[in-house]
Sequence to fold (495 residues):
Amino acid sequence: MAYSNKVKEIYKNQLSAIQDAGLFKQERFIHSSQAAEIEVEFPTGSAPKKVINVCANNYLGLSSHPEVLKAAHDGLDQRGYGMSSVRFICGTQDIHRELEKKVSEFLGTEDTILFPSCMDANAGVFEAILTSEDVMISDRLVHASIIDGMRLCAAQHDTFKHSDMDHLEKKLQLHSNKRLKVVINDGVYSMDGDTAKLDEIAALCEKYDALLFVDESHSSGFIGKTGRGTHEKCGVMGKIDIITTTFGKALGGASGGCVSGRKEIVEMCRQKARPYLFSNTIAPVVVSGVLRVLDILSQSTERRDKLEANTKFWRKGLTEAGFVLKDGDTPIVPVMLFNAKLAQDFSRDLFDLGIYAIGFFFPVVPQGAARIRTQISAGHEMHHLEKALDAFIKVGKKYDILGKTKQEITDKYGC
Amino acid sequence: MEDMKEIILEYVIEEYCDEENDEVTFDTPLISGGIVDSFSMVSLKRFLENKYNISIPDADATPEAFDTVRKIELLVKKYL
Fold:
């Protein structure tokens, strides 16, 4: 079919509808490496401006770490740029095997399989291991990639209220007749920054003979005493059957992901997971970088300890200033503004003061729960955080929301 | 027989609501209002099918048809 005016109109109307609903996403161009300070071209066409970044997933500040860059350069020199093949034809190098082994050691699992991204890992894993005789029971706030993966799988699905153990137990009882049951969670929830109650969930899975799945994308590398993840923090290492995680956030921030867990489950993915079978795996240059990241994190907890200290400073500063925050202790610190326009205006004013943080609103978060999601990094120095805090307080004063409750803010701005 | 709308409303509140959205009525938008996400709608469909011993084709179980308790009642009555 030719790309006729009729077709063009269809897409133009859909794009207009997205714009009218205030949901049109615009990229902002960064003219520097990813770091605590970046140079952002905003609005498009303007001269790049140096700002402090408090919205990256660069939790450990490793995205531009010199040792990681050197390892990536060495990998490029020694193993080349691309594989030009899927894994099972001629797309597997010794370093892919080495990374799978190192990830298993790091996470405390039996085996690991790499995927081009964690999105691909989540898209492929359920279909590879479940059939229509099985059920997937997911927390209602799991990441969109997990929902897509569940949609691609023939197994039945059901959901439970976010972190509500009584509701989860009811669902496990309701589905007691299924061949396999899988309980599906994020380790740390990306929008609220809260942590799954993995100890309680693991106990319920044991009681009702269910498998336990956790996406550790916002946890791997820094949650838990040695940064192994939520399962370390909750004291259930070895009890998680399936972990998915990404190398695109704390673990260097480039790209790639994996499924890690029980040996047979990983092998099923190797035989059946479509994103693994029909796509090239992670490029050698990235594999080499991630190997170095895991070495750095295995040698010292210095970076995750600094991240923890930075997070405490940031949460304390915002709380004392009188902002409404979501409870938690992770580096994801949502500053609640409730009203979508207020969140957008707040973000713009922060940018004017040299702070880069983005407003989130419906449908990314529930109606009336608009916020600025801040994310702290070990790459932040105290002067970055002090400057950012100062800017937040200035803008908070401008809109007269400091010390105000949710009710008072929504009375003033609506929700 | 207990009013069907009351039964559906009771299930919706029990299954989907918490303290923050306690004012659900027969006409509250459930899906478009963000109370029930389209992925979690499956448990509501399963409840209706078991409770009223009916089968609702997937093609009819649309977010629009499930958007309010009143609309859900109309849908269920179609298959009774």
